[in-house]
């Protein structure tokens, strides 16, 4: 069961009022289909999903995205009873549509990125510098991060899952910086970079 503090509830409800459900919902679902193309198999009836521009301009994607974010809005209003709020949708997606529950996590990650465009601040030069280090060594990520992988595994005993979580957060931070320029195509590219860095950092654990 998820527990929210009073401060968290206040933050969620106050910021949600600023969200354009139709616009943000369309972008969130569109980004999901672009960044994680294997999710498109659940939307065969949506017509043309052949490219990122086709997906982002697809009226059925936009309409369903609005439905998704409207349901999320219901969750915002009922944060103390999320299980019952989504009971019907959970049954539908499990029993009838057979959707992999991992896809909900992916959608959540994408949604946070979209919402960050509404509320984000500039990310610091230090964060940019750290990420640029990864960009400068894309062809040898394993070698570049070998020492860090050894350090975090043997000496610091860091759970490798934390590398993936950091990658997700970093993509959100980048969306703050780039704003509208952080297109689905750009996001897809950066997701690959942070995934590569996370895998390289976790190399010593395997």
Please describe what this structure looks like:
- The chain is mostly helical and 206 residues long.
- Helix content is 70%, strand content 0%.
- The chain has helices spanning 6-16, 21-35, 52-57, 59-77, 82-85, 87-96, 102-119, 125-135, 141-144, 146-155, 161-178, 184-201.
- The longest helix is centred in the first third of the chain and has 19 residues, at 59-77.
- The chain is globular, with a radius of gyration of 19 Å.
- Residues 122-142 have low confidence and may be disordered.
- This is Globin domain-containing protein.
- InterPro entries: Globin, Globin-like_sf, Globin/Proto, Hemoglobin_b, Hemoglobin_oxygen_transport.
Low-pLDDT stretches are 122-142
Q: Please report the total strand number as a whole number.
A: 0
Report, as a whole number of angstroms, the end-to-end distance: 32 Å
CATH architecture of the largest domain: Orthogonal Bundle
Work out the helicity level: 55-70%
Organism: Oryctolagus cuniculus (Rabbit)
Keywords: Heme, Iron, Metal-binding, Oxygen transport, Transport
Protein name: Globin domain-containing protein
Domain Globin: 3-206
